[in-house]
Amino acid sequence: MSKNSQKNRTLTKRRGKVAVSVVREDTPEWGAVRTTAPRKYRTPSVALNRKYAVTTVSDAKKIAKNWLVSFNLENAVDFGLPEVDDRYHVWRVPLVRQGTNKRVGEVVLDAYNSMVLAEETTKPDVIESRLLGRTSSTAAKSGQTQIPEQMQASFVRNTVILGDCELALLEMPSQSVDLIFTSPPYFNARPEYEDYLTYEEYLLKMRRVIHNCHQVLCEGRFFVMNVSPVLIRRASRSEASKRIAVPFDMHRLFVEEGFDFVDDIHWVKPEGAGWATGRGRRFAADRNPLQYKPVPVTEYVLVYRKHTDKLIDWSIRNHPDQHAVKDSKITGDYEVTNLWRIHPAFHPEHPAVFPLELAERVVRYYSFKNEVVLDPFAGTGTTGRAAVSLNRRFILVENEPKFIEVIRREMLSWLGGATKHVLFVGCEPPDTSGLLF
Ligand SMILES: C[S@@+](CC[C@H](N)C(=O)[O-])C[C@H]1O[C@@H](n2cnc3c(N)ncnc32)[C@H](O)[C@@H]1O
Predict the structure, then answer these.
(1) Which pTM value belongs to this model?
(2) Which domains does the chain have, with CATH numbers?
(3) Which of 121, 252, 314, 426 is most enclosed, with most CB atoms within 10 A?
(4) How far is the CA of 350 from the centre of ligand 1 (A)?
(5) Mutate which of 192, 399, 407 to test ligand 1's pocket (most atoms within 8 Å of Cβ)?
(6) Residue 105 pairs with which residues in a beta bridge?
């Protein structure tokens, strides 16, 4: 589906937050057409043994129907018999022309997390073409110039969303974002809130968010994540504290979700910045071997590219706005190495902001002017501020109303009169009546 044809799709507001359920309970059963199961597929009982999230044929159909609804195709096709393929841990839901068993495509679901796998699922425009009896070469023969979907300029305007980014991302048009820059919530940084009971649960959430980010990001474009190991403080004097290498687990998620690793940039803070953790103090006093613990003064800035066979040169040459490409050239000094020395930032109302300078570097190096930058874990909206200062657009998603309040308030100074044109989803726009322009 082209971005333009999705122009009129809106983000759903539900109970003040963006909400989409992957399986809608009210979805009626569809008249399934039985197909003969190929031998390699096992019966759904294997789904139970494997502890998949999707365990029944009926659930698989409901999820597939939900996906069809987002492309207005739900009334155009019937389902064949969904089958679980435990070699790849997926469910395959065949799509057939209504009233026949003529196959027009399939929806492929990740059996563990119930997400639709876009790369393996038949593209909606291909399903449409097959239903209309067109061949994919029809448009080409008509003489129209075909602009690849990923090369069309995104129409999305500056947007602030209050809600869980995992769900909000599902409501966004595919390939409508040119760059993602974020820093995820810290695992167990605030144990009193019990956000994630286990580290595995935290990683599963991050996987679903990365998966959904993949859907909205244009092919061949960048996802940059600021992340660092976390310290789990000891519960008692007899226990040791523990460090979890979150960036390395994130790396695995990125690769498994269809991103190619590009760079590991180290954000270096001035020495002394890490003393607050108390990490090096014991060794400084006793000087015993084995007790040595360096004070961390770096954080990772991991750079990934959504997988594509095309070279970066191709993306630049085929960019739809060559004027913006020219205008976005990075002149003067730039960071030559992967050591970026930047002072940390502090915010009186947020415990973990990243510096505007860090966000500005990422936005400048990995996007062109006028493009759309998404931060799914927006906090106080630093990424949006960097995007605006460099003439880019932004989409900010944050699930804590108190941080959305900070974005709404501070935006008046960094965006000025243009705040009037921002789309607020799940929250009210700020009062702009006092603005002069
Ligand atoms: C590390 S902070 C980001 C701070 C931000 N970079 C800044 O400079 O202000 C992570 C943010 O993600 C938010 N968050 C956590 N889970 C979320 C979710 N599921 N959806 C949206 N935001 C979430 C937290 O409330 C927190 O503000």
Answers:
(1) 0.69
(2) 18-141 (no CATH), 153-425 (3.40.50.150)
(3) 426
(4) 10
(5) 399
(6) 95
